[in-house]
Design brief:
With 329 residues, the chain is mainly α. 70% of the residues lie in helices and 1% in strands. The protein has 11 helices and 2 strands, in the order αααααβαααβααα. Strands 1-2 form a two-stranded antiparallel sheet. Helix 6 runs antiparallel to helix 8. It is globular, with a radius of gyration of 21 Å. It starts with 10 loop residues before the first helix and ends in an 18-residue tail after the last helix. The relative contact order is 0.18.
Length: 329
């Protein structure tokens, strides 16, 4: 009697094939999402278009928080401070020019400078202490904006933004949304490229085991300061997009709730920048759209969502330290 042995399937090969198939579906899914996003102004009413533009602004701010949480393992609770720095910079510059790209670049630079200065204090500490220091920075910026910002506690208005030279100011919500969408895609592409660099690998190594990185001769505080500065630049860009959407900025935009929403989005999508952006969109929709359907209880609903997330195993507050490596987006 002859027994024929069938070779066992190679588990590693099977998993590799599944991963390859999943990776091949990502560009297709991304393309479908982008097409749907571009077509949105022709599919829904003006209110939902404005809401989508606001969600995109929060998605950019979530990328700023994710750069620190997902790569460096440091949870920030003050990214709204740099959003407001960028927004006030754009609003002040709008008295001279309302050209959107100029306002965006100026706000990005202002956010980076503000983060570089305050980051000298923030990067000296780690984990929960880092969370509290960034919270304190956010509250200080909130107070300063109320005392010395243009318009004081009432805030200030700006004229409609012009997307490109020679075009008319963007008044209709659909054009504003498309402008913000284009800027968000450009910023997102740049951030994803950044996450694939050696700099990102070093940040992940710091999150996993900082003493070992120091032992190899790297200055971890300098690396974290660079990451903090880049995160501030992204948040500043979000500020310029915010004033393009609302044509208004006030100290309320630096409130802790804005920073908390960005941090929550980063934690929900902790494995990827795309996940953080999607989480930000869902949280804004929950707060503003679903909350509106529930007689204006958006903040209550959002608070319940945060409580649920806090008690999920991977999102416990103790996990805010995130002292482990992260996967690529």
């Amino acid at each position: 009697m002859t027994t024929t042995l069938t070779p066992a399937p190679n588990t590693a090969t099977t998993q590799h094939r599944k991963a390859s198939r999943a990776a091949g579906l990502i560009p297709i899914a991304s393309g479908i999402v982008v097409v749907a996003a571009v077509a949105l102004p022709w599919m829904v009413n003006a209110y939902l278009v404005s809401l989508a533009a606001t969600a995109l602004v929060m998605a950019v701010l979530a990328m700023s928080a994710q750069l620190l949480v997902g790569l460096a393992g440091q949870p920030p609770l003050g990214q709204a401070a740099y959003l407001v720095v960028g927004a006030y910079t754009a609003a002040t510059l709008a008295t001279l020019t309302n050209l959107g790209p100029i306002l965006l670049l100026a706000a990005t630079a202002a956010g980076a400078v503000a983060a570089a200065v305050t980051g000298l204090l923030a990067v000296r500490v780690r984990d929960t202490t880092f969370l509290m220091v960034t919270f304190g920075i956010g509250e200080l910026v909130h107070a300063v904006a109320g005392q010395w910002g243009p318009g004081g506690s009432e805030g200030t208005h700006i004229p409609p933004v012009v997307a490109l030279p020679g075009l008319a100011p963007m008044v209709r919500p659909g054009w504003v949304y498309l402008y913000v969408l284009a800027c968000t895609l450009i910023i997102g592409a740049a951030v994803i490229v950044l996450t694939r660099t050696r700099f990102a690998l070093l940040l992940r190594a710091i999150a996993a085991h900082e003493p070992r990185v120091q032992a190899t001769g790297h200055h971890t505080s300098r690396l974290l300061l660079a990451a903090y500065t880049l995160a501030g630049a992204i948040a500043g860009a979000a500020g310029a997009l915010l004033v393009a959407v609302t044509r208004y900025v006030s100290p309320a935009d630096a409130a802790m709730g804005i920073s908390a929403l960005a941090l929550a989005a980063a934690l929900i999508g902790s494995r990827s920048m795309i996940g953080a952006c999607a989480a930000a969109v869902l949280l804004v929709a929950t707060r503003d759209w679903v909350g509106g359907l529930l007689s204006g209880h958006g903040s209550t609903l959002l608070g319940v969502c945060f409580l649920v997330l806090a008690y999920l195993p991977r999102h416990r507050m103790a996990g805010l330290t995130l002292r482990r490596g992260r996967e690529l987006p």
